[in-house]
Amino acid sequence: MSARILVVAEHDGNKLNASTAKCVSCARALAGAEITVVVLAADATAVGAQAAQLAGVARVLTVENAANLHPLAAVLAPQIVALAAPFTHLLGPSTTFGKDLMARVAGLLEAPQVSDIMAIESATRFRRPIYAGNALLTVESSGQGKVVGTVRMASFEAAAAGAAAAPIEKATVSVPLPTYTRFISVSAAKTDRPDLQTAARVISGGRALGSADGFKILYSLADRMGAAVGASRAAVDAGYAPNEMQVGQTGKIIAPELYVAVGISGAIQHLTGIKDARTIVAINKDGEAPIFEVADFGLVGDLFQIIPEIERLIS
Amino acid sequence: MKRILVGIKRVVDANVRIRVKPDGSGVITDGVKMAINPFDEIALEEALRIKERGAAEEVVVATIGPADSQQQLRTALAMGADRALHVQADGVIEPLSAARALLKLIEREQPFLVILGKQAIDDDNGQTGQVLAALWNRPQATYASKLELSGETARVTREVDAGLETIEVDLPAVITTDLRLNEPRYVKLPDIMKAKKKPLDTLNFAALGVEPRQQLKLVRFEPPPQRQKGIRVKDAAELVEALRKKGLL
After folding, report:
1. Is it the case that residue A1 has pLDDT exceeding 90?
2. For residue A227, is it within any domain?
3. Which of A71, A159, A172, B80 has the fewest CB atoms in 10 Å of its CB?
4. Chain B interface includes A115 (CB < 8 A)
């Protein structure tokens, strides 16, 4: 029996998040899989059309409901379960959206969930990191019943646009939706910089930046390089950078082409978040810092002199 | 009684360097320092603070795990929990089995709030809170960095990829904690002595009427690939040159 995979789209109402294209790539790793993307939204027109463009997608289902304006797991999960019957696998991204939602779906289905899938070996065999990526575990499902999964973003390239758009179908779901969870607000700094999760280049700062003001030299260099800016947990805890910039085990796990760690010592929890970066550069005044153990290029010195100098050199 | 239920898990201490067994059957845990999962410690701290400001009357801490897990329950009692429940279980307990057991404890204890860590730092599943909320048909507020209670509702600030999201949930609800919710207190020696006299009940899955089920077989553990150690450059100019050569600038 070939796999029929339902991918739950992540979006902001207008734009499909790149995480969905990575979930589609993960699903395509299973030869012969039939891939359906479901878009739950208040108005799914724009996002549905974007999902239909992804290579490998056979069909897009849209579920429109005013209650889907903001992604609340308690509201979305029963709708996904109502559509789940024909599918063998249900995948979502390992982002805060997907982690919150998919485990609730798994709970309603009483199905096993494989978190942070980094490789699909077969319809029943999956590999995932445990212990903050210090061990890899291969798990096997029974082949009976459904498997729910979240897809580790750093392990898959985003699926490109396909030759022809997949058909879009409106699905009607009539299940009672709970009203016991209500969206109030979301605060996110508006930035013109690339998205941290998908940027090709990332510059991150640690506690050595000394203050929120100290981060300005990183923003300036990042803008020169077209890079996103991240931060270590220590810098976020100290209030130098907002939580959405945190890179590491409990923040974002990223895989840029170039990662520049500035004033970051390299705690194991931080290294977990950058292991898949193609090239790692470390700039730190402590030559013994563990970050140098994983860096392709290490530079020992005063970051407040080095960073402006790099900016001058590439201007 | 206004009661908060906190779930904790015994895990390998966050500072231990993890090594995979040569035969790939697991990671080495013999003789390794164990601790309360850090996120669960934050969950307990939050419950204690709620009680201390008069918004709850009792904090009950529960764990599911082997006999040794009682060490972590004693630590939780020393931190300030009033009672402990130990669901004795050996071997793999998947999130669904853990959630089923916790649901039985909820039915017995009738808490108005259940607080868990967002994930355990051993298997990094990050599922139990959401699965429990689904089985219980109650709200979930995951990745909480701020929790405000008012009457029959809670307002929770969540750390999400976009920034900070605020939601309101009706109680009872399941909350899972993120790192910045609070900083857990240190346990003082007299509290360790006092904790020995606090009630700790032992149960098992059969007594709860739950059968633990393993749906995912653990096939193989392996160490992750290691990155090659790189080179040191002497200054900014040499670094820029090296990155240009690789086409990265």
Report:
1. no
2. yes
3. A172
4. yes
Query: Does A11 share its domain with A128?
Result: yes
Q: Which one, of B10, B31, B28, B9, lies nearest residue B18 by Cα?
A: B28
* Closest CA of chain B from A124, distance in Å: 9
Asked whether the ipTM of the predicted complex exceeds the cut of 0.90, the reply is yes
In a domain, A187, yes or no: no
Give the CATH number of the domain where residue A112 resides: 3.40.50.620
The alpha carbon of residue B64 is apart from the nearest alpha carbon of chain A, in Å, by 18
Query: What is the arrangement of strands in the sheet containing A89-93, beginning at the earlier edge strand?
Result: A113-117, A147-151, A89-93, A4-8, A34-41, A57-64, A168-170
Buried b / exposed e over B95-121, threshold 16 CB at 10 Å, is bbbbbbbbbbbbeebebbbbbbbbbbb
- A184 vs B220: CB contact, 8 Å cut-off? no
User: Widest CA span of chain A, in angstroms?
Assistant: 62
A166 and A213 both lie in a single domain: no
Contact status of A274 with chain B (Cβ, < 8 Å): no
The reply to whether A24 and A146 lie within a common domain is: yes
Put simply, the answer to whether B236 touches A313 (Cβ < 8 Å) is yes
Number of structural domains in chain A:
2
Q: Which residues of B touch A125 (CB under 8 A)?
A: 219
pLDDT at A286 over 80: yes
Give the end of a domain, one of A131, A150, A170.
A170
Distances (CA, A) of B208 to A39, A111, B79, B107, B110: 39, 21, 27, 10, 15
Determine the average pLDDT of the residues in A104-127.
Answer: 97
Which residues from chain A sit within 8 angstroms of residue B138, using beta carbons?
180
**What's the CATH number where A221 sits?**
3.40.50.1220
A141 pLDDT above the threshold of 90: yes
With 80 as the cut, is the pLDDT of residue A138 above it? yes
Q: Where are the domains of chain B?
A: 3-245
Asked if omega into B172 is within 30° of 0 (cis), the reply is: yes
Residues A24 and A150 in one domain: yes
Query: Does B227 lie at the interface with A, CB-CB under 8 angstroms?
Result: yes
**What percent of chain A has a predicted confidence (pLDDT) above 70?**
100
The answer to whether A244 contacts B163, with C-beta atoms less than 8 Å apart, is yes
From chain A residues 128-167, the ones with a CB under 8 A of any chain B CB are: 129-142, 145
pLDDT the model gives residue A60: 98
Q: What is the mean pLDDT of residues A190-195?
A: 85
H or E segment at A201?
Answer: strand A201-205
CA distance A35 to A56: 7
Across A284-303, average pLDDT: 97
> Both A33 and A162 in a single domain?
yes
Mean pLDDT by 10 residues, chain B (249 residues): 97 94 95 97 98 98 97 98 97 97 98 98 97 98 97 96 96 97 95 95 96 96 91 97 94
pLDDT at A2: 86
Domain region containing A245: 201-314
Q: Tell me the residues of chain A between 210 and 229 that have a Cβ less than 8 Å away from chain B.
A: 225
Q: For the domain covering B3-245, report its CATH number.
A: 3.40.50.620
Q: Which of B217, B220, B231 sits opposite A297 (nearest CB)?
A: B231
Q: A105 or A269: which carries more pLDDT confidence?
A: A105
> What pTM did the predictor assign?
0.95
